[in-house]
């Protein structure tokens, strides 16, 4: 077996001696300020992990023909080093890279360039058809072009914490399966095309300016978790009942005055967070599998005669009339009821 050099979090301030033929170097979470030029000649190196150091620059690594993964998150790099064309994973999160190179390796499968202060990305990025995960969160992007639809292999996309004002409909052309983060932008609406993401498991649209959701949301049949807190939603579409695999629904901090009856059709729902809304009543029927229901700071005066077999019900900062019998029954079954 080819040698490896592993010394993460070892308090190093300089690059140690490297054995010949090394396959992997893991020097993450040290205080290294410079990578010596000899590293660029390690012909057998397949993975280089340098996250969390104090690097300001890297040598030209384009000659490392065996290198498949480069990890340099959390440094102080101002430019992307020259990389070999066969590189598959490039992790640059939390540096000071203001511009990505015009040409990125066509074999890239994972690219993380979040928290760098990027205001734009090169058009060539949207042609990386082998890309499976893309993280551009925490930058200063104002636009995602229609060309995003060209990322035909993408499973995970993070565009959160930018300055985006619109979601391109072409996002619905992607084959996303794992997650889509669109939180903390400036969106006021969601295109109906999002309903075409019918294999997506996790969708985060928190902390935007949304006032409504498209009916097409109900076609996202694979969703397991949906986060919508911190918007301006006044209602939910009746089609939400189509999310039959949904287990968590987070709606804190909106302007909801009612829930659609179709919520009862969410048979897999276990967590429903409705804190800080304007709800005056609940539907007569809630999902039978619900276990955690958070209703803090609404305008409830009464509760339905029947509630699911909850493990926890939080009703604080409501002013219910009297002592509803349903609360006594829940408490008798062991539910934690907070008022």
Automatic annotation (TrEMBL):
Pfam families in alphabetical order: LRR_14 (PF23598), LRR_8 (PF13855)
Residues covered by the Disease resistance R13L4/SHOC-2-like LRR domain: 148-251
Key word Acetylation present: no
Keywords annotated in UniProt: Leucine-rich repeat, Repeat
Keyword Coiled coil applies: no
Protein name: Disease resistance R13L4/SHOC-2-like LRR domain-containing protein
Record organism: Nonomuraea longispora
């Amino acid at each position: 077996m080819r040698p490896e050099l592993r010394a993460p979090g070892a308090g190093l301030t300089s690059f140690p001696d490297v054995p010949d033929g090394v396959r992997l170097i893991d020097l993450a979470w040290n205080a290294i300020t410079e990578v010596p030029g000899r590293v660029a000649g390690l012909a057998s190196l397949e993975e280089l992990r340098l996250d969390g150091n104090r690097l300001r620059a890297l040598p030209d690594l384009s000659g490392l023909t065996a290198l498949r993964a480069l990890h340099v998150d959390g440094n102080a790099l101002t430019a992307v080093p020259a990389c070999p064309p066969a590189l598959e994973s490039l992790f640059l999160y939390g540096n000071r890279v203001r511009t990505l190179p015009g040409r990125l390796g066509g074999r890239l499968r994972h690219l993380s360039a979040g928290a760098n202060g990027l205001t734009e990305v090169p058009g060539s990025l949207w042609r990386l058809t082998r890309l499976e995960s893309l993280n551009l969160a925490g930058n200063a992007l104002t636009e995602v072009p229609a060309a995003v639809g060209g990322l035909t292999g993408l499973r995970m996309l993070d565009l959160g914490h930018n300055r985006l004002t619109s979601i391109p409909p072409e996002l619905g052309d992607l084959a996303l399966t794992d997650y889509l983060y669109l939180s903390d932008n400036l969106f006021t609406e969601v295109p109906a095309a999002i309903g075409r993401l019918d294999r997506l498991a996790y969708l985060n649209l928190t902390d935007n300016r949304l006032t409504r959701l498209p009916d097409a949301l109900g076609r996202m049949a694979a969703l397991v978790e949906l986060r919508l807190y911190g918007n301006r939603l006044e209602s939910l579409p009746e089609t939400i009942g189509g999310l039959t695999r949904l287990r968590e629904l987070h709606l804190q901090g909106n302007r909801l005055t009612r829930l659609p009856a179709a919520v009862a059709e969410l048979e897999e729902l276990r967590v429903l967070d409705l804190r800080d809304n304007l709800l005056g009543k609940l539907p007569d029927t809630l999902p039978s599998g619900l276990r955690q229901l958070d209703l803090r700071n609404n305008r409830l005066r009464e509760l339905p005669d029947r509630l699911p077999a909850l493990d926890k019900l939080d009703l604080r900062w409501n002013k219910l009339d009297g002592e509803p019998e349903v609360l006594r029954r829940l408490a008798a079954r062991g539910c934690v009821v907070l008022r």
